[in-house]
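Researcher: Please translate sequence to structure tokens.
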Amino acid sequence: MKNDSIQNRISLNASKMPDKIAIQKGNELTTYGELEKKSNTIAEFLRQNLSDDKKVFLMLDKGAELIESMVGVIKAGGIFVPLDPNFPEKRQLLMINECLGDVIITSSKYLEKVCSIAKCIVSKVKVLTMDEPEDYNKYVEHISLYKFNEIEEQPSNNEILLNKNCYIYFTSGSTGIPKAILGRHRSLLHYIDWEIREFNLDDNCKVSQLTSQSFDPFLRDIFVPLVSGGTVYIPDNDAILINPEILIKWINESSISVIHMVPSLLKVVVEYVKDKNSFPSLKYIMLAGEMLRGNDVKNFINKLGNSVQLVNLYGPTETTLAKFFYRISEDDVKRDRIPVGKPIDHTEAMILNENQMKCRIGEVGEVYIRTPFITSGYLNNKELTRQVFLKNPFGNNPADIIYKTGDLGFIHNDGKLELVGRADHQVKIRGIRIELGEIENKVLACNGIKDAVAVDKADRMNNKYICCYYTAEEEISPSSLREQLIQSLPEYMVPSQFIKIEKIPMTPNGKVDRKELIKIQAVEEENSSHVPPSNELEQRLVDIWKEVLGLTQIGITDNFFNVGGNSLLLVQLHARVDTEYPNQVDIMELYKKPTIQHLARLIGNTVNNKEIELNLKFLKVPYEYLVMKNTNNIVELAEFNIESKDYENISAVCSEERIELYTFLLAMYSYTLKETFEADELCLYSNILDETSVGILNIDFGNISDFSSLFESIHGIRAIESFSKDQLMDSNYSRKVDEVAIYFGVNERKEDNYVRSKFYDLAINLVVDKELITISFSYNDGKLNSAKMEELASRFIELIQIISQQYV
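Model: Translation complete:
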């Protein structure tokens, strides 16, 4: 069918149901009509500024703008290249130089980074920003800057040949340069069509988007729902990916029906599942990227029964998303490894030995994939493309190509494919392909390193991690190596463990003896850098850390991430701590300051101040208002002045309602919080009743029908608990990740810094001087979304003006 393409399917959905929600990220909703309009506008810009078949880099956060840009690029006949904004700048520059694209689409928050990269590129880069930059002239010296809102929308011409390329994704390269893989329209559509048809997905499907935009499974998350007429659901921030409790809550609140994830994330989520009714709307969990074990399936079924269908998928990026699938059943709990199953339509598995002869049933050989729906191979690397995209040795058609995967496996009697390992030194960590040689090259570039070998290991939970053995002329600490590597490698490629050795063991034929190498364990010498535990609680926590990390020695000030920890191990650590000290440490607190010393203080404060802790109150806020930063930083958002005219209006309200000025302002603030956080009951801290202390105020909107009843309620309010100010100045009181402490202050002096106490996540302070009211806002930008806080402050000021004018 000539007009059958992904972009045409999406356009057809837009014409049939323009008001249907296509993309939802927190409270940001994008309809199919809006997606169509914006992607057409982007396509029009690209047709005017892009030569045919050229590359467009997308440096955008996950969300509607990124998806609109992807669709716009393929409508214009271009090739989109997603760049994760969080990747090191050096790696982004490597990717851009490898592809030599014409255009970068970004947002104003990344223009500084784009300009920095552009200085290293010979030609002047054309940059389209999806929002309005504050200082346009600041950037035009290095880039040709265009603004989305200045482009005129034109009807899109979607007639693109399906054998053309439409995207580039990178995989790790053994030379130290990432390999760029060119994906085709027809191959992408083939997989998307297959998944929709195989699992009977329609316009009711709600698909989660959990994968980074820099990896090709992102395409599954996006195009399966958009082609079927369903909805893409994107978490408002990535914090939920390291907080299983919040992730489970988000899945349920969003009524997600399909999830694509890696097995390591599944294992973590299962640990936090409460009962078999935990996912009432979820139908399928599609697993890919790592070997799935029978024990993982057993744990899942023990918790959830058969309410959700697990599906194992397999297929390298080079063959487009996935080419094999297996529906998992209860019988599979007895297996060691779960098969990857049978091929999807128009695909065949060929198991060949070293002589490229077919292996017998049950005989292990290298897996080759035969399908016409492959990618176009590696950009700028014809030699490597020829080495792995081979002519079928059992046919005469030169167009009949098989892909050499490097995976080892065998075929069962019933035709199912099972993988057993790799034929080379490529590994997968958390579902991401990594060439160990690329890591070795980067380590060798570090100061003082003589030799380096990277290997993959597995912890007690069978989660894989990278260990680097190295030789050096001088003492180089693992933290120093990590700091150097993080400048050029993404986080997932930085080794979790570094072991210094005298020399690299070699085989008789001069190759690295990896079997001997992995037998060498880290020698953990006694030294002053390891601070020993000082009490029973710290000692118990040290023991837990040793078990989780597989270490024999650890100090109470050691950073979890510098001694072999990663985000998945952190979740395991939290689960262990929570078992022994229930509900006393939130995982985000642990993430922000991952040391035993800090952890012990959190638990100790809870135990030693139990009476106070039980009486503290916090407000739950929706996850879209939260951010994940490794900081606890209180910043001043803004300062507003309410001058004489508005002051007179407010005074008129107070006179008519017979209330004080602060009662009116607290009522306005409370109502703003209620509407913003969708809360029927509020609790906040304030000195409004007694400026020498702070009390907890509880405001129940259940019996409040209008503003007069709200004024009356607050006028008669009493504190449910009171504290001295010093008691709450400490920031160590534990709370859940979605709970915040809010302060309403009256006449606080800036110099005493009380309203900026780290105990409070959001604080407002009012100072009245004659007929001038000064209102200052501060918030914890390590926990709360800055844009959302700006909206909240604006709503508060706007509400004051609206309500006060109604009484004039």
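Researcher: Any highlights?
Model: Residues 524-528, 607-614 have pLDDT under 50 and may be disordered.
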